[in-house]
Amino acid sequence: MSTASTAVPAPAFQEPAPTPVSLLLLGRTADPRSERGVECPGDLPPASDPDLVARAAAAKAKLGDRLFILGHHYQRDDVIRFADVTGDSFKLAQQAAARPEAEYIVFCGVHFMAESADILTSKTQQVILPDLAAGCSMADMATAEQVERCWERLEDLGIAERVVPVSYMNSSADIKAFTGRHGGTICTSSNAERALEWAFAKGSQVLFLPDQHLGRNTAVRDMGLSLDDCVVYNPHRPDGGLTDDQLRDAKMILWRGHCSVHGRFTPECVDEVRERVPGVNVLVHPECRHEVVEKADYVGSTERIITLLNEAEPGSAWAIGTELNLVKRLATEHPDKQIVFLDKSVCYCSTMNRIDLPHLVWTLEALAEGRVPNVIEVDADTAHYARVALEQMLALP
Ligand code: SF4
């Protein structure tokens, strides 16, 4: 199955050092196209204000059906309690689109999620991110300029026509639009295998953006490709750090991006929890590294993790490798099961956690007073091609 060059053998998979992503301190810069965020204007109420819950509830009640609050599964409890619906990013964007009467969609998630909601909702709806500094380190690892440079390289090599871009939902609107322009599809962690099957029926190579782990895990674990069929394109190295032969011969060209939360779990975490909790079922998200996924008993998207725990036998033990807010909530909801976090250290999504109660109160009170802060708006051309790629995902067989 390996198609690696004989001249320059493809290296066995090795976890690369993390891409340095410096989350800007409190998002104090001005780059609205970046997932790294921009300054959050206005005076926030102090986190110590004992009336924050009452203030959020009052502003929400005043806005009534004009307001719809979306809460991502990884969001903190004091914010998620105000969400009208919870879910993963795609489900939330669809829910917002299904509520045309809601003028204001407050997205308690991160920047790329709010962009997706803006792309899928109508022009009469405004999508608001309570803290513009809530970006996503993974989405930030693939910029439009870097991906265009990569594509030019594929064109220069004469292979772009046979390469199909498949981009994870966790990417900026620019990357989704790139995908739509070049005949590709978006995927979620639930349908990545179907997306790859579709892509390989259309072309002979896939450029998978931006999460190398989801791409590798799906190709190798679910579809039977070998690790040698995959190469990693590093946008920080000349020519992506790959020879012409490596690019020509690879089936999967994986972008060198990863989730800083799921990337923390190691094979040692799995060994340690198996010793600590006899009979434990290890359940991890496919954004985890390949060697972690290989050691786990179950692998599943956030929605799949929730379903598996709902269906699990009382008394069973589970170690979960995903964001800590969700794991803690699942442990509270299933007191009849032993649910532990896969890592021994704390592992929140720090950017998602920037949406806290003071930011939510600040946002809701502004809306109740007739001001609309922190609107996320994707330009028409980008939104059009991003929608093309999203619609292709909905049309996957
Ligand atoms: S959990 Fe990972 S992929 Fe999800 S928003 Fe946070 S950094 Fe991005």
From TrEMBL:
GO biological process: 'de novo' NAD+ biosynthetic process from L-aspartate
Record: residues binding iminosuccinate: 72, 89, 168-170, 189, 285-287, 302
EC number per UniProt: 2.5.1.72
Pathway(s) per entry: Cofactor biosynthesis; NAD(+) biosynthesis; quinolinate from iminoaspartate: step 1/1
SUPFAM superfamilies with a match to the protein in the record: NadA-like (SSF142754)
InterPro entries: NadA, NadA_sf, Quinolinate_synth_A_type3
Principal location listed in the UniProt entry: cytoplasm
GO cellular component: cytosol
ATP-binding as UniProt keyword: no
Gene Ontology terms for molecular function: 4 iron, 4 sulfur cluster binding; metal ion binding; quinolinate synthetase A activity
Reactions mediated catalytically: iminosuccinate + dihydroxyacetone phosphate = quinolinate + phosphate + 2 H2O + H(+)
Cofactor binding notes: Binds 1 [4Fe-4S] cluster per subunit.
Ligand binding ([4Fe-4S] cluster): 136, 259, 349
One Pfam family in the UniProt entry: NadA
Signal peptide (residue range): none
Presence of keyword Metal-binding: yes
Cellular location(s): Cytoplasm
Recorded family membership: Belongs to the quinolinate synthase family. Type 3 subfamily.
NCBIfam families per the UniProt record, alphabetical: nadA, PRK09375.2-2, PRK09375.2-4
Function: Catalyzes the condensation of iminoaspartate with dihydroxyacetone phosphate to form quinolinate.
The name this protein goes by in its record: Quinolinate synthase
Lineage: Bacteria, Bacillati, Actinomycetota, Actinomycetes, Catenulisporales
The encoding gene: nadA
